[in-house]
Amino acid sequence: MRIEVENLTAAGQPFEHTYGAEEVDLEEEGARVVGAPSVRGSASRKGDEVRLRGEIRTEVELLCDRCLTPERAPLAVEFDTSFIPREAEAVKAENVELLADDLGTSAYDGEAVDLDELVREQILLALPSRRLCKEDCKGLCPSCGTDLNAGGCSCEQTEVDPRWSALAGLKDKNE
Ligand SMILES: [Zn+2]
Ligand SMILES: [Zn+2]
Question: Ligand nearest 156 Cα, by number?
């Protein structure tokens, strides 16, 4: 969905949209959107600067960093983002030798703001950087891939110090 800039005023205009879960592709390993993301907020304009404020609600599926078990979690993100036309952004960036990201603003093509891209970015930013199914997740056995939360595997008795196994690997190659 695109928000046309021409009709916006300083007063703010409400907007609302619900996406299909498959419409928002995070292109992120270990995380995907599973609940239809809904976004609502208000759009205002001062000169050629557009400001979108609102909230996104969805449900995401995250893979545990250690055991790769998928877990679903609700996600609510509040945003307050300013957009300036792309040409203005280029000038501003040149003058202060900063990129748009550092200025805390995003760019639009001069006619409309891409709400889809905003929703995608905001969900990505809100994802937890550390994802564990539980604090003490034991993860997968590095040798056989067994989920160690479900019990041990037969590799445990022969587990070697990783420094020694590196040496053992060298030895194998030399033989
Ligand atoms: Zn886990
Ligand atoms: Zn194992």
Answer: 2
Tokens of 66: 């250690």
Q: How far is the CA of 60 from the centre of ligand 1 (A)?
A: 16
Pairing of strands 49-63, 70-85: antiparallel
CB 15 within 8 A of CB 38: no
CB atoms within 10 A of CB 151: 8
57-102 residue pLDDT tens = 999 999 999 999 999 999 999 999 999 998 877 777 666 655 545 5
108 burial (CB, 10 Å; 0-12 / 13-18 / 19+) is: buried
Q: Output the pTM of the full model.
A: 0.78
C-alpha 136 to ligand 1 mean position (Å): 8
